[in-house]
Model the fold of this input.
Amino acid sequence: MYSNFLDYQTKIITFSKTPTIYIYVKTKTMSSENRRKKSLIIERNNRKILGESEMNCPEASENLKLNTENRDKSIKAEYIKYGPLNVDEPGNYWVDLAKHWETTEEAAKKSLCGNCVAFDISERMKECMPGKTSDGDGELGYCWMHNFKCHSARTCRTWAKGGPITEDKISYDWQSRQ
Done:
């Protein structure tokens, strides 16, 4: 699939009863995008070699009904209040959120799904999305706190600093805790 840019050598070394496989990758002449893709492929192959199976996409990322149910619950739940529904016409959403957090509207607007610790836009999660995942306002990702596809320009009351999730390894870790 990616053989047009893969140039690697493998070396099997036995330290114990189990052989260890090292993959050496030539990356000097390759673009950063190709290096990223190659790293992803190697990580996935290493998981297979070690007998670690890749996790499937989260159910809500593939099941529209479940995704919609989880999102709608997150919009209605007083402790979550996911929104604004329309980022171009937010109504009083940011004012209300600022009052809830006891901060300014400007500060509230900086606490978005796009920089939340639970917002997953890793390569493996992008493959779980239904199609094009970005628009002029941001991109679609997966919320591990509330288990639905969410948009980076929105937020909720459970927002936590530290994101987004951009590495498959961290995405798998969040999924393993579900």
Confidence is low (pLDDT under 50) at residues 1-16.
